Every structure is written in C-alpha cells, then in structure tokens.
Amino acid sequence: MTDPIAQDSSAYARAQSEQYWKDLDKTPLNKLRFADALLARYTVWWSPQQDENVDWLRSEAGEIIRSMTPEEKRQAAGDPHIAGMVRKLWKDSAYRRLKEAV
Q: Which of 43, 37, 93, 99 is CA-nearest to residue 68?
C-alpha cells in the first residue's frame, strides 16, 4: 500500500517544480538549465525511449546554444550544470568550443 502522505508530498513537489519552470524567464540560459533537468530525468533510469529522448534533447540544446550571444555563451560555460550537460551530450571538445566562442 502506498503512503498517502508521501503521495501528497510527491504531488506537491511536482506541482511546485512545474510552476517554477512556467514562471521562469525564457532566456537561453534558463532553457539550458531546463534541458539539464530533463537530461537528468532521461538518464537516471533506463527506458526504451531513452536514446530517442537524449537525441531530441541534444538537438534542442544545440539550437539554443547556437542562438546565444557571446555573453550568454560565457555565462553558460561558467554554469556547472550547463557545462556538465554539454559534456554529457557532446563530450569535452564541445565544452572547450563553447568556452572558446566567447
């Protein structure tokens, strides 16, 4: 049997998280932070759609990075979460290119 208090807490946490992302400014940096959160969800547990989801996310994040200004790229390169996501999706060479782009 499932604990109703745990269910309520989980539902509350999901609702708060969803509201946080809805209220957040849709800047390229915040979009990449959201992409990093999605990547974490996609890769924590294996699923049959995992590769497809990660490939889609790689494409979306790449478009966001290409659209960024040099200042936004500098900020992205300095953000540990975004830097980790870039390394996970494209390896260290892509992170070096991101740093060099500024």
A: 99
Dihedral angle at the C-alpha atoms of 63, 42, 55, 49, nearest 10 degrees?
-140
Contact in structure between 92 and 84 (CB atoms under 8 Å): no
DSSP letter (8 states) at residue 53: H
Query: How many other C-beta atoms are found inside a 10 Å radius of the C-beta of residue 51?
Result: 11
Q: In angstroms, rounded to a whole number, what is the distance separating the alpha carbons of residues 4 and 10? A: 10
5-26 burial by CB neighbour count: b if 16+ within 10 A, else e? eeeeeeeeeeeeeeeeeeeeee
Count, in order, helices (H) and strands (E) of the chain: 6, 0
| Tens of pLDDT, residues 19-47 | 877 887 889 999 999 999 989 988 888 88
- Name the amino acid, one letter, at 48: P
